[in-house]
Amino acid sequence: MLRRFSFALAGAAMLSGAATAQTVPLGADLERFDYPAPVRWFETRSQGHPVRMAFLDWPATATPNGTTVVLLHGKNFCAATWGDTARGLAAAGYRVIAPDQIGFCKSSKPDGYQYSFHAMAALTAALLDGAGAGKVVLVGHSTGGILATRFALLYPARVAQLVLVNPLGLNDTLSEGVPYTDLGRLRAEEAKTDAASIKAYQLRNYYHGDWRPGYDRWVAMLAGQYAGPDGDRVRDAQARLSDMIQTQPVAAELPRLAVPTTLIIGQRDLTAFRATSAPAAQRGRVRTVPQAAEVAVGRIPRARLIRLDDLGHSPQVEAPAVFLRALRSAMTP
C-alpha cells in the first residue's frame, strides 16, 4: 500500500508540474518544431482543397539493399517520433520514408475536411509515387496501424510486408460498449487538452507509470500545436480524426489481408480507444491493444505475433534498440 501511495504522490507532483509549466506555442503546423531530418513536401489537391503533406526521406547510410520502409505514425505522434527507428534502418541499408498524414503535425488541416483512412491511403500512395518508391515494407503504429492495414487492403501489390506496431482498429470498440461520441462533444473534449492531460494519458496507457525525461519532448510537440492563436484549427482536426478512428476500424476485414503480416505488440499497453467513456459495467469488455492482437493474429492469414513483454504502446520510443531488433526480425522472411 505504501508503495502505491508513494507512486500516486510522485505522479501527482509530476503532472502538477506539467500543468503549471509554460507551453511554448509551436504553430498549428509545427512551424517552430524541428524534425530529425530535412522536411520535404508533397503538394496536391484533396476534396477540393489544396493540401500538402510533410515527409522525411532518409537515404541508406550503408550499402543500399534496395528496400524502402514506410513508417506511418499514430494519432499522438508525428513523423519525427520515428527518428531513432529511421536512423537504425538507414544504417542497415534501407531507404526510409515517414510522412505526416493530412490533419496531423506539419501537414495541412483543411477546414471541414472529411477524414477517412481511404483518403489517407490514397494520399500516401500518391506521395510514394512522387517520391519514386516502388513496393515497400509498410510499418504502421497505433492509428497508423489502421491506415497501414487499409493501404494494404487497397493496394496489396504495393506492399511487400506489413508490420503493425500496437495498432488500433483490430477490434470494434463501439460494438464492445464504447458509446458513439459526436463531433461536437469531441471538440469540447479537445478544448480541455493541454500538456498535463496529454502527459497523464500517456503515463498511464503508454508507459505503464514509468515516465522518462525524453518523453517530455513529445508532450511539448503535441501541446505546442494547441497553444497558439490558431490552436482551434488543431482541435477541430483532432476531433474529426477521433471520429474517424471510432467509426472506421478494420477488424472485420482482417481475413482479407493478402500480404505477409507481422504484429509487434508491447504487452504493457493499456490503450483501449475511448474505453473510459463506456459505462463502468461495460469497460471490461473493451479490449486493450494486446488483447485484441491475440485474437487478430489468428484472423489474419499467415500472420506472426512478436510480443515485447516489458514495453507499452510506443516501443519505438520507449526502447528504440529493442524495437529495432524486433522490426528487423519481422522484416526477415
TrEMBL record:
Entry GO CC: membrane
InterPro entries: AB_hydrolase_1, AB_hydrolase_fold, AB_hydrolase_sf, Epox_hydrolase-like
Domain AB hydrolase-1: 68-320
Any Pfam family: Abhydrolase_1
Protein name: Pimeloyl-ACP methyl ester carboxylesterase
Coiled-coil residues: none
Domain of life according to the entry: Bacteria
Keywords in alphabetical order: Signal
Annotated signal peptide: 1-21
Gene Ontology MF, one: monoacylglycerol lipase activity
GO BP annotations listed: acylglycerol catabolic process
